[in-house]
Specification:
The complex is a heterodimer of chains A (about 210) and B (about 950). Chain A has about 210 residues and is mainly alpha-helical. Chain A has 8 helices and 4 strands. In chain A, helix 2 crosses helix 3, helix 3 packs across helix 6 and helix 7 crosses helix 8. The longest helix of chain A is centred in the C-terminal third of the chain and has 31 residues. Chain A is globular. With about 950 residues, chain B is of the alpha+beta class. Chain B folds into 8 domains: about 80 residues, Ubiquitin-like (UB roll); about 80 residues, Ubiquitin-like (UB roll) (Roll), CATH 3.10.20.310; about 90 residues, Roll (Ubiquitin-like (UB roll)); about 70 residues, membrane protein fhac (Ubiquitin-like (UB roll), Roll); about 80 residues, membrane protein fhac (Ubiquitin-like (UB roll), Roll); about 80 residues, membrane protein fhac (Ubiquitin-like (UB roll), Roll); about 70 residues, Ubiquitin-like (UB roll), CATH 3.10.20.310; about 375 residues, membrane protein fhac: a member of the omp85/tpsb transporter family (Porin, Beta Barrel). A 16-stranded antiparallel beta sheet of chain B has the order 26-27-28-29-30-31-32-33-34-35-36-37-38-39-40-43, with no helix packed on it. In chain B, strands 8, 9, 12 and 13 form a 4-stranded mixed beta sheet that branches. In chain B, strands 2-4-3 form a 3-stranded mixed beta sheet, covered by helices on one side. In chain B, a hairpin with a 4-residue loop joins strand 6 and strand 7. Classes of the chains: A mainly alpha (about 210), B alpha+beta (about 950). Chains A and B meet through helix 1, strand 1, strand 2, helix 2 and strand 3 of A and strand 1, helix 2, strand 3 and strand 4 of B. Strand 3 of chain A pairs antiparallel with strand 1 of chain B, so a sheet runs across the interface.
């Protein structure tokens, strides 16, 4: 009896065929499919030189990254912010190629991705950075007090790490200012993304992330 | 089957790669029943049978289907068909959309409407189960805010798969409402706690009488309580006081609530002026610290500017104001505005120079400044701000007519014509050239629309060019496309120099976008109303372009039925990419029964004996009145109304039963009314009348302003307590039966019927009573009225009205019966008379007999007195009721005590206090020629025996009237 049931289920599945793609996340009217999520995972693993793992957490993290990218691109289109094209990622792609050297093509095949997939992902990173620069960096205003506070935190960390030749505040001021500005810009982007996520109907399909 | 194993290493390639490149032999849908027909799906999908399979195409197909909004989930499988091809299966889950929310069982407050809003379930939006939890939480929050802590909320979702709708029913078991049980007060304040508790009104009590216990909690009561406490602090000049409701602490074991209030009375703030007194109430308006309840320099500066503006408007055009703050005692802050008023000026002259295109009168209409005259303050209307505003207004006028380079400047000069303090304003206009539209190019417009579009544009070729006209054209164009189904239409324009001098070539570009049509109109929420009643009023049908105007008009038509408390409209799936859409109508039916109770009183010359001959002109009397009414709305689900209205007072008892059928014969312009009336009244001093009347009336709306009423009335009137010569009684006071057909034409072009400022109101009422209609007396009756209203500026209105009436006897009794004759005079006609005291009188007793003709004319000058609510009126009334058409006379003087056919005049003054139901008014009238007449001193028996004494009497020259509504 059980064997018959198993045969029936198998037959039904076979008749249905192979799942080609399905919705993983919907962002308003737009969708991110499971294939998008897996490709994101593979490209990220390729860039990090590690094995691609498709566990629920990894898939969810990859989907989150794709959602963020989608929100940024939509906002950039709405506000007419000029973002880098895929070709602008060529320099970064050259760097990746150099890392893999002669085994580059074989590595792409091993990860099941194309050069265009890699280029797209690198461009997406560039776009997010560019968007932050234009949208949030001008809003960051740092006071002298904040700069000194941040320098003191850094200096304490250096001391704790056993560093002895700690530069003075004045000599390291440009670097401190850049670091703190970057940090505040990233925080502003996170806040903005958080707000956009609340305003937008974002539905994750649980069956994809099991 | 899933694409990747749980927690495993990601597959090295996309699933289905081995199927890529094969020919798609078939695409099937699971389930087979889809929201769209196969042909529409074929159009939506970017992949079709016969194509080679590309995984990017599969992705695009999922994206396209989801973007329609009709699916909540989509997946695509592929299966080799054994012949080198591939069969695709598109599996879908249908999306549902909210078509209505109902709330039942709630014990108000909160109202059902408040809870529906709190649920935040938007009509037409996509529904997800997760929203129900949120909606329930929001509803519970509102219930708790209203003391319903024990309330239980349950819900039921009705799904309609055919139209993809869900209707959500919330049921509320309200439980018992919690009561307050005390107040926790904290913070810095000096008032006794007991006073603060009294301010909240949370204790039980009536006015100042305290009852034991506390009141039930409602959101309104809580908010009003907090506001009252705050207002009381502010009354004592603690402007910066704060009262914060920190929380409502619920005690479930007692079902009571303890509110906790944090109070900070803050310092006493005194704002005063030196150098010139300004009323405290005015200071409260001008100094924003009162409104903002904080003191800072920017607010004090704003107060200074407002004060200067106010002083200038009072004639102190050179006034200087400074301020300083001090703290004379702990907890006391003083702001002293030092005013140097200088000489008070009077605006005597406004000159406009350099204008050619517009005449000075046209420009003057736009000025808010005004030289001093009777209707302005003594010093005229002027301030620097007014001048700046007027100059800008003139600039706008010119620029909107193509004078884009116009320059308008204003200069003031003192000592006009050598008189100290007299001011003149000189406005100089440099018009510059008028720019016109050279060529107008229309891009992107469908060819068929061009003739219409060109006909409605303001910026046609050769017309003056202005951005205001372009903006108006933009609105016209977009409105046209929005109302023809192009909800995403976009408009852009550009200008370039034209060939001719001072000309501009314009290009209007429109992108209509995709046209959307009505798929069906879904009506929800009807309980007792018959669906055909609603269906007949729908202005949209499947296949029509989706027009927002038509949706709004449909909504208005449904509201016009008067049976719906709410008519919500929406388009289902508004975000979805589809061109055929469901239009949703969700209706809440109004309560089927409505009750009204009114208590009032009439004060006027309505007093005097009922059975004696004293005071034929009436003495000051007071008549309390109560009215009760009940109406059953939406009878038989057909929007018909059955209504009983009753009124009881010492001079009138009345019951009116009416049955109204709106829009009979499917004609929206008609209203049919059947009514039965019983009335026992003594509003005319001469007699008491008992009237039983039945009527049928068909009202027809011709245009927005014009309407007609066709009426048949049958009445039986019995007259008693007649106070006239006994020999006249057989003539006038026989019981009578009157059957009359009449027609009334009404033209109403008033801007506001309750408080008219401009317009015309005309009525013509003509009727004929014939034996064939069941009437004993046969006569014709004509009553006409013409009223006009003319605004004179600054809220001043000149209003006038004339009323003419004529009754002509045809056959039957020798005299028109008393109850059918014209009785007039009083608060709404000629105020020189008490109510219904105009016209011929009984020559022995002096009581009014009414007449067969009537001519009245009134003129009123209505003007504002104090603020927006109190106004004044100067009036002149003239006219009378005449014994016959031939006796109508404009004669001023009365020939003798038996002559009533002359024109009585009354002049006077009145006050009007504005209320939502019309102005409350009091009028004082003085007549130079009130009627004199003979009265009778004695009893009825003495009258019969010719033994009484005739006395000389007259209508008092001074009359007062107190009532509601304008005179006309």
């Amino acid at each position: 009896m059980n064997a018959r049931l198993a045969i029936c289920v198998f037959a039904a599945l076979a008749a249905r065929g192979e799942m080609l793609d399905r919705i993983a996340v919907s962002v308003g009217k737009r969708v991110i499919t499971e294939r998008d999520v897996l490709r994101e995972l593979r490209v990220a693993a390729f860039l990090d030189h590690r094995e691609p793992v498709a566990g629920p957490q990894q898939k969810r993290a990859a989907a989150d990254r794709l959602v963020d990218r989608m929100l940024i691109l939509e906002e950039a289109a709405l506000t007419h912010v000029a973002l880098p094209a895929e070709s602008d990622a060529a320099k970064l792609l050259d760097g990746v190629k150099a890392q893999y050297g002669a085994g580059y093509a074989a590595a792409l095949a091993r990860y099941g991705i194309t050069e265009q997939d890699v280029e797209q992902q690198l461009a997406a990173g560039l776009r997010a950075m560019r968007f932050s620069e234009l949208r949030f960096r001008p809003e960051v205003q740092l006071s002298e007090e904040e700069l000194r506070g941040f320098y003191n935190t850094l200096a304490a960390q250096w001391r704790a790490a056993g560093k002895t030749d700690i530069p003075s505040f004045e000599s390291s001021r440009p670097q401190v200012e850049k670091l703190l500005t970057d940090q505040r810009t990233a925080q502003a982007l996170d806040r903005w993304l958080g707000a956009r996520r609340t305003e937008t109907e974002i539905l994750y399909r649980p069956q994809v992330f099991q | 089957m899933v694409l990747a194993g749980a927690g495993g290493i990601a597959p090295a390639q996309d699933p289905g790669v081995e199927l890529q490149g094969r020919t798609i032999t078939r695409i099937v849908f699971d389930p087979a029943e889809q929201p769209y027909p196969p042909a529409a799906l074929e159009k939506i999908l970017p992949i079709h049978a016969g194509d080679r399979l590309e995984l990017e195409g599969v992705h695009a197909a999922i994206e396209k289907l989801y973007a329609t909004g009709r699916y909540s989930n989509v997946s695509i499988d592929g299966r080799a068909d054994g012949e080198g091809g591939v069969v695709l299966t598109v599996s879908t889950e249908q999306a549902y959309f909210i078509s209505g929310v109902s709330i039942e069982g709630v014990s108000e407050p909160p109202t059902r409407g408040q809870l529906e809003s709190a649920a935040k379930l938007e009509l037409g939006a996509r529904f997800s189960e997760g929203e129900l939890k949120q909606a329930t939480e929001h509803i519970e929050e509102r219930l708790r805010a209203n003391g319903l802590y024990q309330a239980k909320v349950s819900w039921r979702v009705d799904r309609y798969p055919a139209t993809e709708e869900v209707f959500i029913h919330f049921h509320i078991d309200s439980g018992e409402r919690a009561r307050f049980d005390g107040i926790q007060l904290s913070g810095n304040f000096k008032k006794p706690e007991r006073n603060i508790v009294d301010d909240t009104h949370w204790r039980r009590g009536i006015w100042l009488i305290h009852l034991p216990g506390w009141r039930q909690v409602t959101e309104g009561l809580v908010q009003r309580g907090v506001n009252r406490v705050l207002a009381d602090f502010q009354k004592g000049d603690h402007l910066q006081a704060t009262v914060t409701l920190q929380g409502l602490h619920y005690h479930p074991e007692r079902n009571t609530v303890t509110p906790s209030l944090a109070l900070d009375s803050g310092p006493v703030l005194e704002v005063r002026t030196s150098g010139l007194g300004v009323p405290k109430s005015k200071l409260r308006q001008l100094i924003p610290v009162y409104e903002e309840r904080t003191v800072d320099r920017s607010l004090l500066l704003e107060g200074r500017r407002n004060l200067i503006e106010y002083l200038q408007s009072q004639g102190y055009f050179e006034a200087q104001v400074d301020f300083q703050t001090s703290a004379p005692a702990p907890g006391v802050q003083v702001v002293d505005y030092a005013i140097a008023p200088h000489l008070r000026h009077k605006l005597e002259f406004i000159g406009i120079y350099g204008n050619r295109y517009f005449d000075s009168a046209t420009i003057r209409q736009r000025l808010s400044m005004e030289t001093a005259h009777f209707f302005t303050p003594r010093w005229g209307l002027f301030s620097q701000k007014m001048l700046d505003r007027d100059l800008q207004s003139i600039r706008d006028l010119y620029q909107s007519n193509g004078f884009r380079d116009v320059e308008v400047t204003g200069r003031t000069a003192d000592d006009y014509r050598g008189v100290p303090g007299h001011l003149s304003v000189r406005i100089e206009v440099k018009e510059g050239p008028q720019w016109r539209v050279g060529r107008l190019v229309l891009q992107g417009f469908p060819e068929a629309d061009l003739p219409y579009i060109r006909s409605v544009l303001q910026s046609g070729e050769g017309e003056p060019f202005s951005e205001a006209n372009v903006a108006a054209d933009r609105d016209t164009i977009l409105s046209y496309y929005f109302n023809n189904g192009y909800s995403n239409a976009a408009f852009d324009w550009s200008e370039s120099p034209g060939l001719a001098d001072h000309s501009v070539d314009l290009t209007y570009t429109v992108q209509p976008g995709r046209r959307e049509y009505v798929r069906a109109v879904l009506v929800r929420g009807l309980q007792t109303t018959r669906p055909p009643l609603v269906q007949k009023r729908l202005l949209l049908k499947p296949g029509d372009p989706l027009s927002q105007n038509r949706i709004a008009e449909t909504q208005q038509k449904l509201y016009d039925l008067g049976i719906f408390s709410k008519v919500q409209t929406a388009v289902q799936n508004p975000e979805g990419d589809e061109d055929r859409r469901y239009v949703l109508l969700d209706m809440d039916e109004a309560n089927r029964y409505s009750f009204n109770v009114g208590v009032g009183a009439q004060l006027g010359r309505i007093g005097g004996g009922v059975t004696t001959f004293d005071e034929p002109a009436g003495t000051t009397g007071f008549s309390p009145r109560i009215s009760l009414g009940v109406s059953r709305l939406n009878l038989f689900g057909e929007a018909q109304t059955l209504s009983l209205q009753t009124r009881f007072s010492t001079i009138e008892q009345r019951a009116l039963l009416s049955y109204t059928v709106p829009q009979p014969f499917d004609n929206e312009d008609l209203t049919l009314t059947l009514s039965g009336l019983f009335d026992n009244s003594r509003d005319i001093r001469t007699f008491a009348a008992q009237r039983a009347e039945g009527s049928i009336q068909l009202a027809q709306r011709l245009t927005r302003a014009n309407s007609l009423q066709y009426r048949y009335t049958f009445r039986h009137v019995v007259i008693s307590n007649v106070l006239i010569s006994p020999e006249l009684i057989p003539l006038f006071s026989q019981p009578e039966r009157v059957g009359i057909v009449s027609m009334t034409f009404i033209e109403d072009r008033r801007d506001d019927p309750l408080n008219t400022h401009r317009g015309v109101y005309n009525t013509i009422d003509a009727g004929i009573a014939l034996r064939g209609l069941g009437s004993e007396p046969e006569f014709t009756r004509l009553l006409m009225r013409n009223s006009t209203y003319h605004p004179l500026g600054r809220g001043v209105v000149l209003a006038r009205t004339v009323q003419f009436g004529w009754i002509q006897r045809l056959a039957g009794p020798a005299q028109i019966p008393l109850a059918e004759r014209f009785f007039s005079g009083g608060a709404t006609s000629n105020r020189a008379f008490p109510d219904n005291q105009a016209g011929p009188r009984d020559l022995e007793t002096g009581f009014p007999l009414g007449g067969d003709a009537l001519l009245m004319h009134s003129t009123e000058l209505r003007f504002p007195l104090i603020g927006d609510n109190l106004g004044g009126v100067l009036f002149h009334d003239m006219g009378n009721v005449y014994s016959d058409l031939r006796t109508i006379s404009f004669r001023f003087s009365q020939r003798n005590n038996q002559d009533f056919d002359y024109m009585v005049h009354g002049i006077g003054f009145g006050l009007r206090y504005r209320t939502p139901v019309g102005p409350v008014r009091v009028d004082f009238s003085l007549s130079p020629n009130p009627p004199r007449f003979y009265g009778f001193q004695g009893t009825f028996d003495q009258l019969l025996a010719n033994q009484g004494v005739l006395t000389n009497q007259r209508i008092n020259a001074f009359q007062f009237h107190f009532s509601l509504g304008q005179t006309f």
